[in-house]
Amino acid sequence: MIEPGAIFIVGVGRSGTSLLQSMLHAHPQIRFLPETGFFRRYVADRRPRRWSPERLQETLATDQQFQRAGIEPQDAAREGAWGLYLQMRKSAAGASPPRYVGDKDPRSIECLPEVKRRFPDAIVIHVMRDPRDVLLSRMKAKWSAGRPWWVHPLIYRSQFRRGRIDGARLFGEQWIELKYETLIAQPRSTLERLCEQLSLAYHPDMLAFSQAAQELVARDELSWKKETLGQLLADNAGKWRRELTSFQALFVEAACKEAFVDVGYERLSNTEKLRWRDRLLLGASPAIRSASLVAYQAARMCFS
After folding, report:
1. Which among 53, 99, 193, 251 could disulfide-bond with 29, CB atoms 3.0 to 4.6 Å apart, if both were Cys?
2. What is the pTM of this model?
3. Would 196 be classed as within a structural domain?
4. Which residue, among 191, 172, 242, has the nearest Cα to 16 in the 3D structure?
5. In the chain, how many domains are there?
6. Residue 303, pLDDT above cutoff 50
7. Strand runs (DSSP E) across the chain, as ranges?
8. How far apart are CA 96 and CA 94, in angstroms?
9. For position 97, which CATH number holds?
10. Is 177 in a helix, a strand, or coil?
């Protein structure tokens, strides 16, 4: 039996990764794991003493994200993290294995070298979205709304930069970049091109993805993934123009400069109406960007 190929969907959280996951899961030749973050949190953590079989089993028994996979934590003592992940892929594939089994975890963009090591032939899809709309969405989502708003652009910058550095270098033609705005404005043609890159025929069910989304979205995720259960929101771009302040928009543009230069998002770049203190903060943005990158990487090493 031929093992299904691996697809990973990555990107900054709130960039449209759940939408693409649902669309691909609706294709009869693609099956996705529920979002558990298991690969990133357990397999990619290579510190030798952190996840002994006993500790892994104990931790998974109370891991709500892992419980979405429907795998018994007792298997951890026998399989270990990597064996358990392969078991999750096998369970998702079912009795008639598809061409691909996918894993969607935006933050896997932080462990692309481990993805490459474990799955040398994996196809990785990097979903990109205007960082100003990402900020607006993260200010509203239950899991991220409690953070200061200015933290989100700094996280965006660090993760986006990590993907741009590692992605093409590690995966070559198997690294696919997809703009969220193009996906919602031209869904069929975008999915047709993506299917061609996956060597699959486009299937119309990909645009009727609501049922597929219901198979993937857990009850505790409904508050921030409910959009994937309904119709495609073709106008879900540019909302930042109405809801962000000028300073917030300009701060994002300064903090996430690479996204505007590399992807081509239109910049506001009008500081005339800002208070002098806000202009001073924007002037310090290069130093803020550099410091945030160091702090973010240090935090990930300590707390991942």
Report:
1. 99
2. 0.88
3. yes
4. 191
5. 1
6. no
7. 5-11, 30-32, 100-104, 123-128, 175-179
8. 6
9. 3.40.50.300
10. strand
